[in-house]
Design brief:
The chain is of the alpha+beta class. The protein contains 1 helix and 6 strands.
């Protein structure tokens, strides 16, 4: 008695799927893991020394209503090379400026003038050197 062709195809498909899965598992089981296969390293990260809380920040308001530049002072010399980003916000207006630290101070021009209000906030982020 012959089996219907549909059952033969289903049986053959199951054999191929199960057999194929066995090949994948056996191939993966043959892989070895060791410390030579993975990369790892330690690097000393230099840090700014000195008092970062001593950095002076003066918001310059030449028009009397909007901040256009910000002057930074007393940046520790050990921070030379650090990436500094300043953001000044007031309501929905935000101005930003970036500087690669070189020296102990600078005046940064904001990307957008920010209205001076009682809710004005300045955020300073320094990464590196």
């Amino acid at each position: 008695m012959r089996k219907p062709p549909t059952l033969v195809r289903i049986g053959l498909t199951l054999v191929l799927v199960v057999g194929g899965a066995g090949l994948v598992v056996s191939d993966a089981a043959g892989l070895s893991t060791s410390s030579r296969n993975l990369g790892a390293a330690q690097v000393a990260t230099p840090r700014c020394s000195g008092s970062l809380s001593g950095i002076g920040l003066t918001e310059n308001v030449p028009s009397g209503t909007s901040i256009t530049t910000v002057t930074l002072t007393s940046v520790p010399a050990s921070c030379d090379g650090a990436a500094l980003v300043l953001t000044v916000s007031s309501g929905s207006t935000t101005g930003a400026a970036a500087w690669t630290v070189a020296g102990t101070g600078t005046t940064l021009t904001l990307s957008t003038s920010v209205p001076l209000t009682s809710q004005t906030q300045a955020d300073l982020v320094m990464t590196g050197p």
